[in-house]
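User: I'm curious what two different proteins look like when written out as structure tokens. Can you demonstrate?

Assistant: Sure. I'll show them one after the other, since each token string lines up with its own sequence. Here's the first protein:
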Amino acid sequence: MYDATIGDHAAPRTRAPVMLKRKPVFPNVIEMNHQAGQRLGCNVYLVYEGTEWLLVDIGYEETVDEIVEMIRQLDFPLSNCRMVIATHADVDHVQGLAKVRQLLKTTTAGHRLAADTLATGDKIKTYAEVDAQGIHLEMPPVKLDTLIDDGDRIRVGQLELEVWHTPGHTDSQLAFRLGNLLLSGDNIYRDGCVGVIDAHHGSDITAFVRSLKRIRASNVQWLLPSHGPIFRKDDALLDRTIARLEGYSRMPDFGTCAVDWPLMDEWDRELAEGKMPG
């Protein structure tokens, strides 16, 4: 009997595509660092229902191909991506936004206050350029196709994400509620730290405190941040963080982000009274 698998005329063999087992952190939510089993960059959330899906953030340009290939191997049709959402316009969240938009032939979404920053590829406001620390990153310009704001709802299959505008870290910071989960952006991390506070990139400590108080007052049970591990909402942790930021608002530690500096009021009084040191 002739065996077509041997000899010079062997029939070509097709290799079955490599598929990955999905590792959702919660029903309908995959976090791509968890899925990869290693840190790729900022947290990238894939929210899905049925064959429809979207991404919240994408990270650096250099990891886009790896993330898209993982999504393919997880058996999500690439053509079924509803959109890629930017939580805000920091380079570590959105440097890859233009590339993934092109690869997936999908649309992008974010807050209107991020639109100009992203459209112009503003290196200062996105933290792509911090000359004093030798940081010089590319920030490819990208258009936001859809502008979203507080109270909007984004559908994925039968699921619905509720948009929260939570300014403070940046003016365009968004969070997304899905049932008892809050994709909480750079508002707070498991150790009580918060997204960097810097006037150059639109930070506002007073607004930050309001955003944290909103999270504190909510009945969400889990916070899914943009960096680091997912954690159960901890009101005591939030209280400590809020108190710390309220203190920052009256200190010069964060420059022009401070509301005032009480020490200067004391000094004015002492100067007027002619008070001498001692």
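Here's a second, unrelated protein for contrast:
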Amino acid sequence: MSARAYPTRMRVSERGGSGRRTPHAGQNPRAPLQVHNSESIPNHMPTAYAAAATVAAYLIGSLSFAVIVSRLMGLNDPRTYGSGNPGATNVLRSGNKAAAVLTLLLDALKGFLPVWLVAQFGGRFGLGEGSVALVGIAAFVGHLWPVFFRFEGGKGVATAAGVLLGINWMLGLATLATWLIVAFFFRYSSLAALVSAVFAPFYQLLIWGGGPIAITVTVMGLLLIWRHSANIQKLLKGTESKLGQKAAAAPPAAKHDTHHGHGHHRHGAKR
């Protein structure tokens, strides 16, 4: 069973008055009262609300903060050096720790915020646990394939952490603790992410049970592993970069060239 319940808000009263339930004439006053939703919602509206929330979550997830922060701070596009991945770990390879931390926090926030909003306020619109799970996977997919950046996104570690924290803070903290332990002892961000991606679904299933949330956590874990396929090969060959290690060919901060024929960024092969 999930650690958080997402009930539709209802009001029940046995006393008379506006909006309150009283027995009909001839009805046994001790008979169980029927519970009515105090906020009547047409049957089709929860589906529309869920669809709107899912699209909004995908668009929020599509904000590639590694690229946005790098541009605002005068750094090179993270897709042009290191692993080519637009994520906090690759931004760290530029040598700018502030940019990396800001990227990490914003990537996590864009996963947390849509999920938290639906979990906290979706009940009044008929949105339950299934909608929370759908919004979570939408924000995560938005980071992987962002519509605003030609569908060239990151690997989703920070965003997945934000989604887990929004769904269930205990699940999120357990997964983050797993990441920190592996990263501390082995100094490989990719290895920490892979181990966390495997453990998170087991935490959910063993402690809180199955359901839509378990499906979302499992799908995110599988996508994380798939997005780290190149890192897995490097780990096996012993060529994977460790945490804090600068990119071998990280170029200096680039100015946007306005000369003809030189205004296009060349995105290195990643992924």
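A detail about the second structure: DSSP finds ten helices and no strands in the chain.
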